[in-house]
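User: Can you predict the 3D structure for this chain?
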Amino acid sequence: MKFVVIIARVLLGLGFVVFGANILHPFLPMPPMDPAVPSTQFSMLMANSGWMKVIGLFQIIGGILVLFGRTAPLGLTILAGILVNILCFHIFLDNGSNLAPGLVFSGLDIFLIYAYRDHFKGIFSFNAAPRLG
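Assistant: Here is the predicted structure, written as structure tokens:
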């Protein structure tokens, strides 16, 4: 099981480091986009505003944190929010197309959250109270 966790961590971490780096400095070819499609309009708005640069930076940070085993829970938490947005984009704006990579990375993230479940006990608590002093 330890090797499966390491393989999942490397796949998820490297995937987000590579695709995050591609957002900051494009090196992978992009397919042509139709400007009349809502997903293209949304993507252009995000790219032109600089918002995608922030997303790319968080993808790299989350991916690196997942690659280092001791910081994986923090990286998984960062990447979970990004993955929700990736899935929502493809479901609601892209009519469900190109959904497979988001589902694979989400599956890896969920598996790793389960593997590191002891580190997430505080997040899933229903009796949380602030510590004052």
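Residues 61 and 72 are 11 Å apart (CA to CA). The mean pLDDT is 94.
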